[in-house]
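Quick one, T. Sequence first:
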Amino acid sequence: MSQQSWSAVPPHGPDGNGGWWAPLRAWDTELQRSGRVVIPAASRLRYIAIGLAAFSLVLCLGATIGFALAFGLIALLFVAPPFLICAGLSAVVLVQQIGHLRRHLVVTVHGIEVTGLATVPWQNVTGAKVVMNAVQVTVVWGRGSRVLQVGPLQAPAGQVVAWLEAVQHRMLGR
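Structure tokens:
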């Protein structure tokens, strides 16, 4: 990659000091310097969700075993099924949250990578948007398109989307 300056964002924001654009310029500088920027997934709320799902799983399984020991076979037939359904749903949430925990957005000069989902060149990225404070990237996939659910990141989703659009515009020379 050449060392020429090619900033994808304006030098000054609406306030004249950078303001809203400051994090974008920092990402731009890092992309120019190393050819790669990693925007990590938000993790604090994920850890809380993982803890709650694990607690719910243990509670439901504990109740199932407790009722079975206290009341015998009749409890297994009538009381256990709702608790087992609860445990199953808790396990699904637990696995899902653990999977999303490591879903980072990696932006390179060649394209984007959503850790654990896909690596996509810039020409196949058709758009990015914010949905419920989470980033979604639409890409060309086979004969159709696919939405990559990036999820909440440790950066404001609106800034990430604006920067992705600016970098894509710059990389493709549009």
